[in-house]
Design brief:
two-stranded antiparallel sheet; single chain; alpha+beta
């Protein structure tokens, strides 16, 4: 074997070894994520390496950010930290908006059960928004009003709002955008309305929109579960003070 053959043999050996280790790391990672009890000795046997080699593999995985815990000794257990995954949650824009509105609702309810870490969670989610969006997000809490629970009459004909409808409403609500809605009133009659969603009012579990109705040229209240369709328009609007909606808010019908 000449020197070129020797070099080629070394390269092939290194390549085989590298692929073997990559495969092994994937197997170890998958085994740990299965959350089934296992010892260091057992997993070393499964992947066909010594304890010493396995420990080196574990250090490689730790360097990649996998929080592996091990117990001392050959028969010691190996597992992922129970809090693994916390801090790695990736939210898209719609999910972040929904979460911020949910946090604002929890803050408005002022329940001790919910208040422990709301502030720190809100600040962390806020960091995902651009500077121009933060002012809008900051104002959400003052635009959500919590009232008394819905009456039995309301609950008797209440339906859960459609998910897509809620998403579009949240977006328009946050961005102060007009929306065109197909609305079904208490008699079952459908009308097409262009409205400005200024405030959200919760009479648990029923949500209402305190809005400016372009058709009526007046303030109106709409039940969210009676909105059949929503189309977001490009026109924005200026927020009307909540005091202007007082009569409408106080007069929300039990039906």
């Amino acid at each position: 074997m000449d020197k070129y053959d020797t070099i080629w043999h070394i390269l092939i050996t290194m390549r085989t070894s590298t692929l073997s280790r990559i495969d092994r790391l994937e197997v170890i990672t998958a085994r740990l994520k299965s959350d089934e009890p296992i010892t260091i000795g057992e997993i070393a046997k499964e992947v066909g390496v010594s304890i010493r080699t396995l420990n080196r593999d574990i250090e490689v995985l730790r360097s990649r950010g996998l929080p592996i815990e091990t117990d001392v000794g050959r028969g010691g257990g190996i597992r992922l930290d129970q809090r693994w995954g916390v801090g790695r949650v990736n939210l898209n824009y719609t999910e972040a908006v929904d979460l911020m509105i949910s946090l604002a609702i929890a803050e408005q309810m002022k329940s001790p059960l919910f208040m422990a870490h709301l502030s720190s969670i809100r600040h962390k989610v806020m960091a995902s928004f651009s500077p121009s969006m933060k002012s809008k997000v900051n104002g959400i809490k003052t635009r959500i009003i919590i009232g008394k629970s819905a009456s039995e009459v309301v609950l008797s004909n209440f339906l859960t709002p459609k998910r897509k409808t809620v998403e579009k409403l949240h977006q328009a609500f946050l961005m102060l955008q007009r929306i065109k809605i197909t609305y079904c009133d208490e008699s079952g009659k459908e009308t097409l309305r262009t409205i400005e969603p200024h405030y959200l009012f919760l009479s648990y579990p029923v949500w209402y929109i305190l809005a400016w109705d372009k058709l009526r040229e007046d303030m109106r209240v709409f039940r969210c579960d009676r909105i059949e369709k929503i189309q977001t328009l490009s026109e924005s609007f200026k927020l009307i003070p909540l005091t202007e909606f007082k009569n409408k808010r106080d007069g929300i019908s039990p039906t």
